Amino acid sequence: MSPGYGVFTVSLDFELYWGVRDKRTINEYGENLRGVRGAIPEMLRVFGDHDIHATWAVVGFLFCNDTAELKASFPAKLPTYERPGLSPYEYIHENASLDGLYHFAPELIKRLAGQSGQEIGTHTFSHFYCLENGQNLDQFEEDISAASRMAAAHGLSMKSLVFPRNQWNEKYLSSLPKFGVQCYRGNQTGRIYEASDAAGQGRVKRAVRLVDAYLNLSGHNTYTFDSCIPRAPFNFPASSFLRPYARKLAILEGLRLRRIKKAMTHAAVNKRLYHLWWHPHNFGKDVARNIEFLEKIAEHYRALNRTYGFRSLNMGELSQLGETHGKQ
Protein backbone atom coordinates (compact mmCIF):
# COMPACT_ATOMS: atom_id res chain seq x y z
CA MET A 1 0.00 0.00 0.00
CA SER A 2 1.45 3.37 -1.06
CA PRO A 3 1.64 6.14 1.56
CA GLY A 4 0.01 8.45 -0.97
CA TYR A 5 3.03 10.67 -1.63
CA GLY A 6 6.52 10.44 -3.06
CA VAL A 7 9.55 10.25 -0.78
CA PHE A 8 12.99 11.85 -1.03
CA THR A 9 15.53 9.83 0.95
CA VAL A 10 19.16 10.82 1.57
CA SER A 11 21.86 8.56 3.00
CA LEU A 12 25.53 9.30 3.58
CA ASP A 13 28.32 6.78 4.10
CA PHE A 14 30.37 8.36 6.90
CA GLU A 15 33.70 6.55 7.01
CA LEU A 16 36.71 8.93 6.84
CA TYR A 17 39.93 7.05 6.03
CA TRP A 18 38.42 3.64 6.84
CA GLY A 19 36.46 3.79 3.59
CA VAL A 20 39.40 4.40 1.27
CA ARG A 21 42.31 2.93 3.25
CA ASP A 22 42.85 -0.06 0.93
CA LYS A 23 42.82 2.16 -2.18
CA ARG A 24 44.52 5.45 -1.27
CA THR A 25 47.06 6.82 1.16
CA ILE A 26 46.40 9.72 3.49
CA ASN A 27 48.90 11.76 1.51
CA GLU A 28 46.90 11.14 -1.66
CA TYR A 29 43.43 11.79 -0.22
CA GLY A 30 44.12 13.86 2.88
CA GLU A 31 42.59 17.09 1.57
CA ASN A 32 39.20 15.43 1.13
CA LEU A 33 39.37 13.79 4.55
CA ARG A 34 40.41 16.98 6.35
CA GLY A 35 37.63 18.86 4.59
CA VAL A 36 34.94 16.63 6.08
CA ARG A 37 34.92 18.58 9.36
CA GLY A 38 34.02 21.74 7.48
CA ALA A 39 31.69 20.11 4.97
CA ILE A 40 29.40 18.32 7.44
CA PRO A 41 28.24 21.50 9.25
CA GLU A 42 27.45 23.02 5.85
CA MET A 43 25.45 19.94 4.83
CA LEU A 44 23.55 20.10 8.10
CA ARG A 45 22.79 23.76 7.46
CA VAL A 46 21.31 22.93 4.05
CA PHE A 47 19.34 20.01 5.49
CA GLY A 48 18.02 22.18 8.32
CA ASP A 49 17.07 25.09 6.05
CA HIS A 50 15.09 22.81 3.73
CA ASP A 51 13.82 20.22 6.24
CA ILE A 52 15.71 17.35 4.61
CA HIS A 53 15.96 14.19 6.70
CA ALA A 54 19.00 11.97 6.18
CA THR A 55 20.57 8.75 7.39
CA TRP A 56 24.26 8.91 8.29
CA ALA A 57 25.61 5.37 8.04
CA VAL A 58 28.62 5.51 10.35
CA VAL A 59 31.62 3.16 10.43
CA GLY A 60 31.73 2.03 14.07
CA PHE A 61 35.43 2.82 14.44
CA LEU A 62 34.57 6.54 14.19
CA PHE A 63 32.83 6.51 17.59
CA CYS A 64 36.18 5.95 19.32
CA ASN A 65 38.24 8.75 20.82
CA ASP A 66 41.64 7.17 20.24
CA THR A 67 43.54 4.05 19.21
CA ALA A 68 43.44 2.49 22.67
CA GLU A 69 39.65 2.68 22.81
CA LEU A 70 39.43 1.26 19.31
CA LYS A 71 41.60 -1.75 20.15
CA ALA A 72 39.55 -2.42 23.27
CA SER A 73 36.41 -2.58 21.12
CA PHE A 74 37.52 -5.26 18.66
CA PRO A 75 34.95 -8.01 18.00
CA ALA A 76 35.72 -11.60 19.00
CA LYS A 77 36.08 -12.72 15.38
CA LEU A 78 37.92 -10.65 12.78
CA PRO A 79 37.44 -10.89 9.00
CA THR A 80 39.77 -13.30 7.21
CA TYR A 81 39.83 -11.75 3.75
CA GLU A 82 41.92 -13.59 1.20
CA ARG A 83 43.09 -10.41 -0.50
CA PRO A 84 46.01 -8.77 1.36
CA GLY A 85 45.44 -5.28 2.70
CA LEU A 86 41.65 -5.48 3.00
CA SER A 87 41.49 -6.00 6.76
CA PRO A 88 41.75 -2.74 8.72
CA TYR A 89 42.86 -4.69 11.79
CA GLU A 90 46.28 -5.33 10.25
CA TYR A 91 46.61 -1.60 9.59
CA ILE A 92 45.62 -0.81 13.20
CA HIS A 93 48.18 -3.26 14.60
CA GLU A 94 50.88 -1.67 12.45
CA ASN A 95 50.14 1.83 13.80
CA ALA A 96 50.64 2.45 17.52
CA SER A 97 48.76 5.75 17.41
CA LEU A 98 46.27 6.72 14.71
CA ASP A 99 45.70 10.38 13.86
CA GLY A 100 42.21 11.25 15.07
CA LEU A 101 41.69 13.73 12.23
CA TYR A 102 41.46 10.87 9.74
CA HIS A 103 40.24 7.97 11.88
CA PHE A 104 37.87 9.16 14.63
CA ALA A 105 34.91 11.54 14.84
CA PRO A 106 32.87 11.13 18.06
CA GLU A 107 32.17 14.87 18.24
CA LEU A 108 30.76 14.93 14.71
CA ILE A 109 28.56 11.90 15.37
CA LYS A 110 27.19 13.63 18.47
CA ARG A 111 26.41 16.71 16.42
CA LEU A 112 24.65 14.66 13.74
CA ALA A 113 22.57 12.79 16.29
CA GLY A 114 21.50 16.05 17.88
CA GLN A 115 19.98 17.59 14.75
CA SER A 116 16.31 17.00 14.01
CA GLY A 117 15.62 14.62 11.13
CA GLN A 118 19.12 13.14 11.10
CA GLU A 119 19.43 9.41 11.81
CA ILE A 120 22.59 7.56 12.82
CA GLY A 121 22.73 4.26 10.97
CA THR A 122 25.56 1.77 10.60
CA HIS A 123 28.13 1.28 7.87
CA THR A 124 29.29 -1.80 9.84
CA PHE A 125 31.87 -1.61 12.60
CA SER A 126 35.02 -2.02 10.48
CA HIS A 127 33.83 -1.17 6.95
CA PHE A 128 33.18 -4.89 6.45
CA TYR A 129 33.20 -6.24 2.88
CA CYS A 130 30.41 -8.80 2.60
CA LEU A 131 31.27 -10.16 -0.86
CA GLU A 132 35.04 -10.48 -0.59
CA ASN A 133 36.51 -13.98 -0.50
CA GLY A 134 37.55 -15.31 2.90
CA GLN A 135 35.06 -13.56 5.20
CA ASN A 136 31.97 -15.37 6.47
CA LEU A 137 28.61 -14.87 8.17
CA ASP A 138 29.92 -15.45 11.70
CA GLN A 139 32.51 -12.71 11.24
CA PHE A 140 29.88 -10.36 9.81
CA GLU A 141 27.57 -10.97 12.77
CA GLU A 142 30.40 -10.26 15.21
CA ASP A 143 31.11 -7.04 13.34
CA ILE A 144 27.49 -5.87 13.43
CA SER A 145 27.26 -6.84 17.10
CA ALA A 146 30.31 -4.68 17.83
CA ALA A 147 28.75 -1.78 15.91
CA SER A 148 25.53 -2.18 17.89
CA ARG A 149 27.38 -2.19 21.23
CA MET A 150 29.36 0.88 20.28
CA ALA A 151 26.24 2.79 19.30
CA ALA A 152 24.44 1.72 22.48
CA ALA A 153 27.36 3.02 24.55
CA HIS A 154 26.61 6.43 23.02
CA GLY A 155 22.87 6.18 23.64
CA LEU A 156 21.99 5.24 20.07
CA SER A 157 20.20 2.32 18.43
CA MET A 158 20.91 1.71 14.76
CA LYS A 159 17.98 0.67 12.60
CA SER A 160 19.50 1.25 9.16
CA LEU A 161 22.47 -0.36 7.41
CA VAL A 162 24.49 0.63 4.38
CA PHE A 163 26.79 -2.13 3.14
CA PRO A 164 30.36 -0.89 2.50
CA ARG A 165 31.22 -0.62 -1.21
CA ASN A 166 27.56 -1.52 -1.78
CA GLN A 167 28.49 -5.18 -1.30
CA TRP A 168 25.10 -6.22 0.03
CA ASN A 169 24.89 -9.96 0.56
CA GLU A 170 21.46 -11.57 0.41
CA LYS A 171 22.63 -14.47 2.58
CA TYR A 172 23.37 -12.07 5.44
CA LEU A 173 20.04 -10.23 5.51
CA SER A 174 18.22 -12.64 7.80
CA SER A 175 20.80 -11.94 10.55
CA LEU A 176 20.09 -8.22 10.69
CA PRO A 177 16.86 -8.05 12.73
CA LYS A 178 18.44 -9.67 15.80
CA PHE A 179 20.79 -6.68 15.97
CA GLY A 180 17.94 -4.21 15.63
CA VAL A 181 18.60 -3.42 11.95
CA GLN A 182 15.28 -2.94 10.17
CA CYS A 183 16.37 -1.82 6.71
CA TYR A 184 19.29 -1.47 4.32
CA ARG A 185 20.19 0.38 1.16
CA GLY A 186 20.24 -1.96 -1.80
CA ASN A 187 21.80 -1.18 -5.15
CA GLN A 188 20.34 0.47 -8.20
CA THR A 189 18.87 -1.85 -10.78
CA GLY A 190 20.84 -2.86 -13.86
CA ARG A 191 24.07 -4.74 -14.52
CA ILE A 192 26.32 -1.72 -14.07
CA TYR A 193 25.17 -1.44 -10.45
CA GLU A 194 25.22 -5.13 -9.48
CA ALA A 195 26.81 -5.89 -6.12
CA SER A 196 30.16 -7.65 -6.41
CA ASP A 197 33.60 -7.86 -4.87
CA ALA A 198 36.28 -5.42 -6.01
CA ALA A 199 37.31 -7.69 -8.88
CA GLY A 200 33.84 -7.34 -10.38
CA GLN A 201 34.03 -3.55 -10.60
CA GLY A 202 35.99 -3.08 -13.82
CA ARG A 203 36.84 0.06 -15.76
CA VAL A 204 33.97 -0.35 -18.21
CA LYS A 205 31.38 -0.52 -15.43
CA ARG A 206 32.84 2.53 -13.73
CA ALA A 207 32.94 4.46 -17.00
CA VAL A 208 29.31 3.69 -17.82
CA ARG A 209 28.25 4.70 -14.30
CA LEU A 210 30.07 8.00 -14.75
CA VAL A 211 28.20 8.71 -17.98
CA ASP A 212 24.94 7.68 -16.29
CA ALA A 213 25.44 10.48 -13.76
CA TYR A 214 25.11 13.01 -16.59
CA LEU A 215 22.91 11.25 -19.16
CA ASN A 216 19.99 8.95 -18.43
CA LEU A 217 21.31 5.51 -19.35
CA SER A 218 19.74 3.42 -16.58
CA GLY A 219 16.39 5.13 -16.05
CA HIS A 220 15.15 7.27 -13.17
CA ASN A 221 15.73 4.46 -10.65
CA THR A 222 12.72 5.35 -8.54
CA TYR A 223 10.75 2.71 -6.65
CA THR A 224 7.23 1.99 -5.49
CA PHE A 225 6.91 1.84 -1.74
CA ASP A 226 5.36 -1.63 -1.86
CA SER A 227 8.37 -3.02 -3.75
CA CYS A 228 10.63 -1.94 -0.87
CA ILE A 229 8.74 -3.61 1.98
CA PRO A 230 7.70 -7.17 1.01
CA ARG A 231 9.64 -8.53 3.98
CA ALA A 232 12.00 -7.45 6.74
CA PRO A 233 14.62 -6.14 6.62
CA PHE A 234 13.24 -3.60 4.16
CA ASN A 235 15.28 -2.66 1.10
CA PHE A 236 15.31 1.04 0.19
CA PRO A 237 17.56 0.92 -2.89
CA ALA A 238 19.82 3.66 -4.13
CA SER A 239 18.60 5.83 -6.99
CA SER A 240 21.66 8.00 -7.63
CA PHE A 241 25.16 8.61 -6.30
CA LEU A 242 25.76 12.33 -5.85
CA ARG A 243 29.14 12.68 -7.48
CA PRO A 244 31.34 15.54 -6.29
CA TYR A 245 32.25 18.57 -8.35
CA ALA A 246 34.94 17.70 -10.90
CA ARG A 247 36.89 20.57 -12.43
CA LYS A 248 37.54 18.65 -15.64
CA LEU A 249 33.79 18.11 -16.07
CA ALA A 250 32.64 21.51 -14.82
CA ILE A 251 31.07 22.34 -18.17
CA LEU A 252 28.67 19.42 -17.64
CA GLU A 253 27.37 20.50 -14.22
CA GLY A 254 24.05 21.51 -15.75
CA LEU A 255 23.54 18.00 -17.13
CA ARG A 256 24.40 16.44 -13.77
CA LEU A 257 21.86 18.62 -11.98
CA ARG A 258 19.17 18.04 -14.60
CA ARG A 259 19.67 14.26 -14.34
CA ILE A 260 18.98 14.34 -10.59
CA LYS A 261 16.13 16.85 -10.73
CA LYS A 262 14.27 14.91 -13.41
CA ALA A 263 14.45 11.70 -11.36
CA MET A 264 13.25 13.56 -8.25
CA THR A 265 10.34 14.99 -10.22
CA HIS A 266 9.47 11.54 -11.56
CA ALA A 267 9.32 10.23 -7.99
CA ALA A 268 7.22 13.16 -6.76
CA VAL A 269 4.68 13.02 -9.60
CA ASN A 270 4.32 9.23 -9.49
CA LYS A 271 4.45 8.88 -5.68
CA ARG A 272 7.64 6.82 -5.69
CA LEU A 273 10.87 6.71 -3.70
CA TYR A 274 14.01 8.55 -4.82
CA HIS A 275 17.16 7.73 -2.80
CA LEU A 276 20.25 9.93 -3.18
CA TRP A 277 23.52 9.02 -1.50
CA TRP A 278 27.17 10.07 -1.19
CA HIS A 279 30.10 10.19 1.25
CA PRO A 280 30.90 13.28 3.34
CA HIS A 281 34.48 13.08 2.08
CA ASN A 282 33.20 13.57 -1.49
CA PHE A 283 32.45 17.15 -0.39
CA GLY A 284 35.77 17.56 1.45
CA LYS A 285 37.38 19.25 -1.54
CA ASP A 286 35.75 22.16 -3.40
CA VAL A 287 33.37 22.42 -0.46
CA ALA A 288 31.71 25.65 -1.60
CA ARG A 289 30.92 24.31 -5.08
CA ASN A 290 29.57 21.03 -3.73
CA ILE A 291 27.38 22.80 -1.17
CA GLU A 292 26.10 25.16 -3.86
CA PHE A 293 25.09 22.12 -5.94
CA LEU A 294 23.40 20.53 -2.92
CA GLU A 295 21.49 23.77 -2.31
CA LYS A 296 20.01 23.51 -5.81
CA ILE A 297 18.88 19.95 -5.14
CA ALA A 298 17.37 21.03 -1.82
CA GLU A 299 15.54 23.94 -3.45
CA HIS A 300 14.10 21.57 -6.05
CA TYR A 301 12.95 19.27 -3.27
CA ARG A 302 11.09 22.15 -1.58
CA ALA A 303 9.41 23.04 -4.88
CA LEU A 304 8.27 19.43 -5.32
CA ASN A 305 7.11 19.38 -1.72
CA ARG A 306 4.90 22.43 -2.30
CA THR A 307 3.53 21.20 -5.63
CA TYR A 308 3.18 17.43 -5.15
CA GLY A 309 3.48 16.82 -1.42
CA PHE A 310 6.91 15.19 -1.90
CA ARG A 311 8.31 14.35 1.55
CA SER A 312 11.79 13.86 2.96
CA LEU A 313 12.20 10.80 5.20
CA ASN A 314 15.37 9.11 6.41
CA MET A 315 15.73 5.34 6.20
CA GLY A 316 14.62 4.78 9.78
CA GLU A 317 11.47 6.82 9.21
CA LEU A 318 10.78 4.83 6.05
CA SER A 319 11.08 1.64 8.10
CA GLN A 320 8.51 2.91 10.59
CA LEU A 321 6.22 3.70 7.69
CA GLY A 322 6.79 0.20 6.31
CA GLU A 323 5.93 -1.41 9.62
CA THR A 324 2.74 0.65 9.88
CA HIS A 325 1.61 -0.32 6.38
CA GLY A 326 2.52 -3.95 7.00
CA LYS A 327 0.05 -4.09 9.89
CA GLN A 328 -2.82 -2.71 7.81
Report on the architecture of this protein.
Residues 37-182 form the NodB homology domain. It comes from Caballeronia choica. This is Polysaccharide deacetylase. GO terms for molecular function: hydrolase activity, acting on carbon-nitrogen (but not peptide) bonds. With 328 residues, the protein is α/β, with parallel strands linked by helices. The chain contains eleven helices and nine strands. It has a single domain (7-326), classed as Glycoside hydrolase/deacetylase (TIM Barrel), CATH 3.20.20.370. It has helices at residues 26-50, 67-72, 88-94, 100-103, 106-113, 137-153, 203-212, 225-228, 253-270, 287-308, 315-326; strands at 7-14, 54-58, 118-122, 160-161, 183-184, 234-235, 240-241, 273-278, 311-312. The chain is globular. 43% of the residues are buried. The model has no long low-confidence stretch (mean pLDDT 94).
Question: What's this entry about, in short?
Answer:
This protein is of the alpha/beta class and 328 residues long. It has helices at residues 26-50, 67-72, 88-94, 100-103, 106-113, 137-153, 203-212, 225-228, 253-270, 287-308, 315-326, and strands at residues 7-14, 54-58, 118-122, 160-161, 183-184, 234-235, 240-241, 273-278, 311-312.
Topology:
Elements: E1 7-14, H1 26-50, E2 54-58, H2 67-72, H3 88-94, H4 100-103, H5 106-113, E3 118-122, H6 137-153, E4 160-161, E5 183-184, H7 203-212, H8 225-228, E6 234-235, E7 240-241, H9 253-270, E8 273-278, H10 287-308, E9 311-312, H11 315-326
Parallel strand pairs: 1-2, 1-8, 1-9, 2-3, 4-5, 5-6, 7-8
Helix pairs in contact: 1-10, 9-10
Pfam families: Polysacc_deac_1
GO molecular function: hydrolase activity, acting on carbon-nitrogen (but not peptide) bonds
InterPro entries: Glyco_hydro/deAcase_b/a-brl, NODB_dom
